[in-house]
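Internal ticket #5521
Category: modeling
Description: The requester needs a full-assembly model to guide mutagenesis choices. All entity lines are attached below as received. Residue total reported by intake: 276.
Assigned to: D.W.
Attached entities:
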Amino acid sequence: MYVNRFLNRTETWRWLDDLQREMNRLFDGYGFTPQRAFPAVNIRANAEEALVSAELPGVELKDLRLSVMNNTLTLEGVRRGEPVKEGESVHRQERKIGDFKRFLELPFSVNPDRITAGLKNGILTIRLPRREEDKPKSIQIQG
Amino acid sequence: MAEKAVQKMESQEVERVERTRSGRTFLPPTDIIETESEIILLADMPGVDEKTVDIILENKLLTIQGNVETRDDNNLQTVYAEFESGDYYRAFTLSDDIDRERIQAKLKNGVLKLVLPKAETAKSRKIAVHTGE
């Protein structure tokens, strides 16, 4: 990370946000960013594709929406809870319910037509192939 | 920028019970709802299916265990990580007598739902109070 002296307002906040994240990661000890939003997300990638996984226990496929623009993936939906009926008492409530929305920045621009996603046992896996134009090209060096 | 760092909680109980599997073990977030006739327990265990979950009730101790198979895709590198995969373990002490024969367990979309019906003797009964004459 570097400090740019000519940051505008938005960029300053963004920079502070990045710094906060970096600090959290440092102190966490395991190299994992403390989870700040639901759902928790992991992003893995190579030169060809990115693989996004999210822990979404109890979320139905119909309640999930995905959209992508260039290198930003939007994941939104709702996690429904069971309504508490009269005469029931809640002893413990640790599971989070409600609406969620996350914007994820991918390491490269992706091809929206070739994205595949699957939901299994509460884990969402999204495979996003890199845009052909965005892939690195090897250049022949003439001697 | 108020930020509350909420992390997947690691199970402490496991340290007392020795494990033969490597990897981390997490505490599944759980809701417990009591109705007049039953206790309903909902536990978030993403990655666990009906074959990899174990529910044991011994006396009043209810133990939930879930194993998650972690696959490593070696040709992919981690770019950003917020969660780690691992097994689940949690134990509860039940206060009422449970009708063991009628316990139901369902696992759907990574959420375990346990319905523990109360035994007839444990159900609250209305006691008629008479004047002490």
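Resolution: model delivered.
Comment from assignee: Chain A touches chain B through 48 residues (CB under 8 Å).
Ticket closed.
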